[in-house]
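your task:
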Amino acid sequence: MTDPNLPRRRGILASLRASFLTGLVVVLPVGLTAYFAWTLVGWIDAWILPLIPSAYQPEALVEHFFGQDANFPVRGVGVLVFLIFTIMIGWLAKGLFGRSLIRMGEEMVDRMPIIRSIYGGIKQVAETFFNKTEKSFDQVCLLEFPRPGTWALGFISTRPKGELAQRLAALGPDYSAVFVGLTPFTSGMLLFVPTKDLVIMDMKIDDAAKLIVSGGLVYPLPKEQL
């Protein structure tokens, strides 16, 4: 007769289930990351490779160096071409000749009503995220949203400028532009909130973004546990 006070031994199925879930936690992030990386490389290749002459296509080069019997997929050539091309364009854009060409091109785009708006918006987003001289988000904050008593994570971007600053100055002394991301971070909204109503957090921007994307499942570790 077994002692009821002794802990029950886990069955084989329960042990296998626990091992499977542990393995899934390890394999799933690696597998999804590899899948998205492979898909991204394939997407860039599909965009770039049609612009390359047929004699320099990866398949043609493989047949030239390894014979016609060689038949294996080659990925990443388009990514390599894209990187080299982008670096060259960036190098030319730093010079006087490149800046003159860009200015002429932008003057032409300014004459096209619809294209001008699209180009201007994309350029501002690109400069915000990729230009090191500009800041994207400064700090993480808590703000009451969408109603009093309910709090949301926000990202403080910049202080209002131009007409917005003038209009908001009549409403209060100090406002901040706060971006509130919505789970799973596919959208969000820009709010102008009195700075005194914001609770400034020590949390990093990346940690706050992970928390929002995960729907509140992934919390940053305390500093003493890092």
